[in-house]
Design goal:
With 450 residues, the chain is of the alpha+beta class. The chain is 54% helix and 19% strand. A hairpin with a 4-residue loop joins strand 1 and strand 2 (71-76). The mean pLDDT is 89. The protein binds adenosine-5'-triphosphate (ATP) and magnesium ion (MG).
């Protein structure tokens, strides 16, 4: 950059000096012509005197040389002088005598410019040299350089700041859009809006309308399931009643009796499914504050569930073992652990998990129910020694209607776990599952302690 500035500025000053040299040459030639016309033969001394007289003010110093490089005359600051030993750049004089101009700039910013003067035979008879102080030019150059570098610095700062601003103003909305997409994938639909008219703004509007449509669609789907379940409830109750009547009535035909038993069993299964669907749609509609919540002692609650499921387990050759919470160190008799839940729903959730443990275990085996606690949490653990769930399915079994590949050993609709999840989340808790195929499953419910 510095070199480029030097190069272009010297081209300018060179041009200026050439113009000046041309003008001086003209004046010099005028003297040559005048002198020749009056006297015929040229008289060097007189010519030099006249030329100096005419050109003495055209530079800080003005010099005239003859074709043998001898200094013929000299003027300093406009005054013709006859002595003194000036600094001479012989190479420049030689070059001028060969027909072209030459110059040198000294460290103290003096420019020595030599140019040839031709006589009437077009021979380079004289060299005219002037010395120019060009320190003003260096001062201007320094200023230009300063302005340029300061400008470039400012420009770089401006570019950096504006690119930072651009980066920030694009990453912020992208983060917002990403957040919206992530919450959509969790089925949490919220409005997306960006106050801008570019592509990002359009993308936000597109996402917003997609979110609204998805939300409406899911609501419609849930409403549909809820309505259908309701509609099915009454006819199903009638079917179940009649099947029971037929099954319990006197019947000699063994085959028919089997069919009636099957009818009753299947209508029971359907009733359970409808009840579960209705429970789920109740969750979809109701806000959590509509549920009755009370401070519930969890040891008791689990004990009751274990007792109610005991018979079913025993029928399958499975034992249920309940381990109460450890007593508090400061109060050795107290093992009471409370959580704010709806006891009926919480029992339903735990019973559902125990039901799974029974359903997906062979016999003989053990189901372990264990209650522990921390100062802030109540932890209920249901561990079985059953068939287990494959790792890639573990995440999906809590989805509605999802049944794992190994579930064909038992009947079910795939709704149980999703209901448990809904219930536990209603009480600000969560469910965690661990499982190993062939070894068993552990389901953990964590609730805030009351
Ligand atoms: N303790 C368990 N051991 C092995 N697999 C299980 C266990 N609990 C759940 N699963 C798997 O998770 C799937 C979903 O369970 P979920 O309770 O939701 O449905 P289901 O038991 O099949 O039907 P439902 O409970 O509605 O009668 C089951 O189909 C089964 O594949
Ligand atoms: Mg189940």
């Amino acid at each position: 950059m510095n070199k480029a500035i030097d190069y272009y500025s010297f081209i300018t000053i060179e041009k200026q000096m050439m113009e000046k040299a041309d003008l001086s040459e003209l004046s010099f030639r005028e003297v040559l012509a005048q002198h020749r016309s009056s006297t015929g033969e040229p008289q060097t001394k007189e010519i030099v005197r006249l030329a100096l007289e005419k050109l003495k003010a055209s530079g800080k110093e003005v010099r005239i040389y003859d074709s043998s490089k001898h200094l013929l005359g000299l003027a300093v600051d406009g005054i013709i002088i006859n002595d003194g030993k000036p600094l001479i750049f012989e190479k420049n004089i030689e070059k001028a005598l060969s027909g072209s101009y030459a110059y040198t700039v000294t460290e103290d910013h003096l420019l020595y410019f030599a140019t040839p003067i031709q006589d009437q035979y077009y021979e380079n008879a004289y060299v005219y040299e002037f010395v120019e102080d060009i320190s003003y030019f260096y001062a201007i150059m320094d200023q230009i350089r300063y302005i340029l570098f300061a400008g470039a610095g400012g420009f770089i700062v401006l570019i950096t700041l504006s690119s930072l601003w651009i980066a920030k103003s694009t990453t912020k909305p992208i983060k917002l859009l990403l957040g919206a997409v992530q919450s959509f994938s969790r089925q949490e639909f919220r409005r997306v809006h960006l106050n801008r008219k570019d592509e990002l703004g359009m993308l936000a509007d597109g996402l917003d309308s997609m979110g609204r449509q998805l939300h409406d669609y899911i609501q419609y789907q849930k409403q549909f399931v809820s309505n259908v379940s309701h509609e099915l409830k009454t006819p199903l109750a009638a079917i179940r009643g009649f099947s029971q009547y037929l099954y319990e009535g006197k019947n000699e035909d063994k085959e028919l009796q089997k069919i009636y038993a099957h009818l009753l069993q299947e209508s029971d299964r359907l009733t359970r499914l409808i009840n579960e669907l209705l429970l789920l749609s109740r969750f979809d509609k109701a806000g959590s504050n509509e549920l009755e919540v009370e401070k519930t002692e969890m040891n008791e609650l689990i004990q009751q569930v274990a007792a109610s499921m005991g018979a079913k387990a025993k029928d399958k050759g499975i034992e249920i073992m309940f381990r109460e919470a450890e007593p508090e160190p400061e109060d050795k008799l107290m093992t009471r652990v409370h959580a704010n839940v709806n006891p009926m729903l919480m029992s339903h959730a735990i019973a559902n998990l125990v039901d799974n443990a029974i359903k997906y275990s062979g016999s003989p085996s053990l189901i372990e129910l264990k209650l522990t606690h921390t100062p802030s949490e109540v932890v209920i653990r249901i561990r079985d020694q059953g068939i287990g769930i494959a790792g890639d399915e573990l995440e999906r079994v809590q989805e509605r209607f999802y049944r794992a590949k190994n579930a064909s050993t038992a009947s079910g609709s795939g709704l149980g776990l999703s209901i448990c999840k809904e219930i536990v989340e209603r009480f600000n808790g969560y469910i965690d599952m661990e499982s190993q195929i062939g070894e068993g499953t552990t389901v953990t419910i964590v609730l805030p302690r009351a």
